[in-house]
Amino acid sequence: MTARAIRKQSHASRRGIFLLFFGLILAMLLAGLSQTALSAAMPTMVGELGGVDQMLWVMTAYILASTIMMPIYGKMSDLIGRKVPLIAAIVLFMVGSVIGALAPDMGILIVGRVVQGIGGGGLIILSQTIIAAVVPARERGKYMGIMGAVFAVSSVAGPLLGGWLTEQFDWRWAFWMNVPLGLLALAAAIWLLHLPKGSNSKPKIDVLGVMTMAGATTSLILVASWGGNDYAWNSPVILCLIATTVILAALFVFVERRAAEPIIPPGLFHDRNFNLTTAAALLVGVTMFGVNGYLPTYLQMTLGADATMAGILMVPMMGAMLVSSVGSGWLVSAYGRYKWMPIAGTALIAGALALLRTLTPETPLWLFCSYLGTMGIGLGVNMQILVLVVQNSFTDRVVGTATAANNFFRQIGASLGSAVIGSLFAVRLVAIIGERLPAGASARVGDISSLTPHSVLSLPNRLHSIVAHGYNDALAPLFLGMVPLAVIAMLLLCFVKEVPLKTTIERDILPDAISEGQLIIEHNGGAGDADVPRPPARRSRRVTDSRGSRRAAPSGCPTGSTPVI
């Protein structure tokens, strides 16, 4: 082949990757915008459909379904290929959106959210997995950085878009808007995604593993959602759910160690980098959602901002996430060094949390925004780099499972963080404001746990100051309590081994070994590598370099050591 022909083929390959990446971005945007836009439409939605007591389930149903489906999508993508699961996820998400848009009552709306969650659990996971299948790890950083930026954009644009649609049209458009986006993503998945289909043999579904994982996850998320809100932490309901979580989690581990095709293979935990980055991701998830979940309410209750202004004041954090996510991705692709980034990121998160502890109702907005910007830089550097480290530790054969497992535990951390912070905040708020209210003022203020921004603003100046400072003093110390979590994450990441990022893509031409329960792990110094089965040396592999060229690698070429073409 001539040099001109090679350049032409490389250009065509890159153009195809860019078009495919555009489709994946649409899929991620679909999941991100829907989740955040709905939060702005929630008050109007509940007011029209009734069922305030079911409002929590509108969010919980989606979180529960999407969290359970994450490892399932990851495993299925390794078994049958990436394309079919992605198409199924997009279709299910659109079906759930239509059900939600047409819902006549809260019960049907919650059903729609469950269906949305079943689809949404695969959108981000499969997008990350597919880009790992077409772009070598060394080049992947810049793509992963943009994916992180999409998350930041959707976090800001979602509430603003949802509020605008609700005010200008109807809250149902927060669901209808997913249909055109979903159709574009579906078209991209059908016509632009061309990858190996996976094993030719019939996949073995780990039914018992799915059931025990789903049960344990459901119990845990219900504990996180109900604990301290609907039920006291020491109530029989919460204690039974905690016991159920522990028992089913133990059964899940037992089942996975004996399953032919485990949903979360125990062999993943033989890899040091996977263990360290997944634990760090869980801790970062706690801090991220602990801040994101309650700062908007803090801004409304303490500073008197309306819902739109509270969203705008969060822009510095999301903007910093966008810049740092894209920037860190490009730096990784340019220089190939990555270990220092998540360490620096968690240090910035710890510093930002300590600064947020100093907040008062009198804190200047520019200073508040600078604290959020610091937090955003730390989160942006962390999120996608940790996924990249995980993907670099495993071959294409199991990268979907590994990516899904990492995100699954991050989501668990997010759920727990939001729940624990919320419960502690509620307890502290009632106690602090109750102590500071003068005699006879309780009737004027009303139920402290039911205060709204409008009711706080309508209070006399003295009572308004007591409530505003009470909100501040109930929440701000909790930020300091999360600093040790960020520090622990930083210390864990110090022990990550910086394995050189691969510059080739490897795929088995006949990947039927996955049906035999084999798990391939890179040699990165992780403990227990020798215990993990490997494919026979006679099997050849297809190797794709960072320029898009392909050839069959010699059968004796060890995993991860194929030279750049």
Write up what this structure looks like.
The chain is mainly alpha-helical. Among the domains are: 8-194, Growth Hormone, Chain: A (Up-down Bundle), CATH 1.20.1250.20; 504-553, no CATH class. 70% of the residues lie in helices and 2% in strands. The chain has a 3-stranded antiparallel sheet, with helices on one face. A hairpin with a 4-residue loop joins strand 2 (541-545) and strand 3 (550-553). The protein is globular, with a radius of gyration of 24 Å.
Keywords:
565 residues; mainly alpha; Growth Hormone, Chain: A; three-stranded antiparallel β-sheet; 3 strands; globular; membrane; cell membrane
Give the CATH H-level superfamily of the domain at 8-194: MFS general substrate transporter like domains
- Helix and strand run: HHHHHHHHHHHHHHHHHHHHEEE
Structural class by SSE content: mainly alpha
Q: What is the straight-line distance between the termini?
A: 14 Å
Main sheet makeup = 3 strands, antiparallel
CATH fold-level name of the domain at 8-194? Growth Hormone, Chain: A
Indicate the low-confidence ranges by residue numbers: 5-12, 508-565
CATH architecture of the domain at 8-194: Up-down Bundle
Task: Give the CATH class of the domain at 8-194.
Answer: Mainly Alpha
Count of distinct strands: 3
Helix percent band: over 70%
Helix count, DSSP H or I runs of 4 or more residues: 20
Mean pLDDT: 77
Radius of gyration: 24 Å
Spatial order of the strands forming the largest sheet? 1-2-3
What is the general shape?
A: globular
* Beta-strand content estimate: under 5%
